[in-house]
Each structure stands twice: as structure tokens, then as C-alpha cells.
Design a protein that fits this description.
This protein is an all-alpha fold and 221 residues long. It contains 13 helices and no strands. Helix 1 packs antiparallel against helix 2 and helix 10 runs antiparallel to helix 11 (169-181).
């Protein structure tokens, strides 16, 4: 695999592919092989093959921040800015100080195309909620507001989802997470408890609830 990387660096894509595929035969479940194949195919303009390999590599090891960097970089190069930033955000959750991810995040969020894509996506979701007001659509809008750090809007959209589907654990979880970011621990705890009561298997809700409880204790409230 390392020799394939050397060949890829020299622009010998055919030779690099040959050695990557030999590595794949030897270690078919090694995630880095698929990440490197993704980089290779993207360099050749084979976007579908690149994306397929990135996704499989991440499926084999979802805790490798480098996978999120290379995949998001491919998305950026193909003009899929909103998808790229979402992928970077996932990587930064695993490794908040990963230099390449931090730099790519800064590059993407100052890109005019990013701001335009976010605006268009938000408007699309807002209109979708008006024309087809389902709990799922409001949940997606809530998540979009959350990603933009519009936490009160996130809460309001999640409350609309709950109005349509009471005890919707995912909506309560969004509310809990939003209030955590607003440092309103009491409201976060209230929503988190409701999320866990509605779905005791929701591990993310359990984590957000515990984060609120711990933060409240640390502040002595």
C-alpha cells in the first residue's frame, strides 16, 4: 500500500491502482486501502468509484478522522460544498484539533458557494415544511438550523415536529442539544429526559442528557 502511495505521488495512477488492489487482496478489511483508492480514483476523475471506496473505508473504520478529511476534500473538489462541510463537521467531532480538517473547515465556510448552498438548503427545507408538514421534515429543518448555530430556531422547528408526533425522541434530542449549546441546562435536562423516556435505546440522547447534567453540576447550579 505504501508503495502504491509513492506511485500515486509520482502520477503513476495505473501502477498505484495495481499495488492498492494487491494490498486489498491481502488485507480486505483495512480501511486505509479504500481511502487511498478513493483518493486515487478522485484524482482520475472517477467520482463514483472514489465515493464508493471512501464510504466503504469509513464503514470499516468510522473513527478515522483522515477518512473524513479525504472524503470531504473530494466533495469540495466536485462542488458539493454543503455535503463537504457536513463531512468535515463529523470528522471534527472525532478529532477537534485535526489540522487538515480545521483548515478545510475554514476554507469551506469562507467559500461564497458554501453560504449560497446553505441559504438554498434552508429555504428548500422551510418551503418543504410549509407544503408538506411532516415530523421528519421539521426534524430535518431543526437539524439544519442546529448546524448553522441557530439554536432557538432549532428548538422551534423541533417543537413543530413534536406537535405532529408527540414523544418523538429525535426531536427532543435536538432540543436538548440546542439548549446545551445555549447553556440552558435545565431546559436541556428536561428535553433530554423526555427523549430517553420516549426511546431508552437512543444513546445520543443519553449522552446529551448526561452532558447537560454534568455541566449543571460543574457550575454548581
Amino acid at each position: 500500500m505504501n508503495y502504491g502511495n509513492v506511485l500515486m505521488g509520482k502520477g503513476d495512477y495505473k501502477g498505484a491502482e495495481e499495488y492498492f488492489l494487491k494490498a486489498k487482496q491481502e488485507w480486505p478489511y483495512y480501511s486505509y486501502i479504500y481511502i487511498n483508492l478513493g483518493v486515487l480514483y478522485n484524482a482520475q476523475g472517477k467520482t463514483a468509484e472514489a465515493e464508493s471506496n471512501f464510504k466503504y473505508g469509513m464503514q470499516l473504520n468510522a473513527y478515522n478522522p483522515n477518512a473524513y478529511f479525504y472524503y470531504s476534500n473530494m466533495l469540495k473538489q466536485n462542488g458539493r460544498i454543503s455535503e463537504a462541510i457536513a463531512m468535515v463537521d463529523q470528522g471534527l467531532k472525532l478529532s477537534p484539533k485535526h489540522p487538515a480538517l480545521v483548515n478545510l473547515h475554514a476554507e469551506l465556510t469562507t467559500n461564497p458557494a458554501y453560504n449560497a448552498s446553505i441559504k438554498n438548503k434552508t429555504e428548500l427545507l422551510e418551503n418543504l415544511c410549509k407544503t408538506n408538514p411532516t415530523p421528519e421534515n421539521y426534524l430535518n429543518l431543526s437539524l439544519e438550523y442546529y448546524n448553522q448555530a441557530k439554536y432557538l430556531d432549532c428548538v422551534h422547528a423541533a417543537e413543530e415536529a413534536l406537535r405532529l408526533r408527540p414523544n418523538y425522541d429525535l426531536a427532543y434530542n435536538n432540543i436538548c442539544s440546542a439548549y446545551n449549546n445555549l447553556h440552558d441546562w435545565d431546559k436541556a435536562i428536561e428535553a433530554g429526559k423526555k427523549a430517553v423516556e420516549a426511546n431508552p435505546q437512543n444513546q445520543l440522547a443519553k449522552n446529551n442528557l448526561q452532558a447537560a447534567i454534568d455541566a449543571k453540576k460543574s457550575e454548581g447550579k
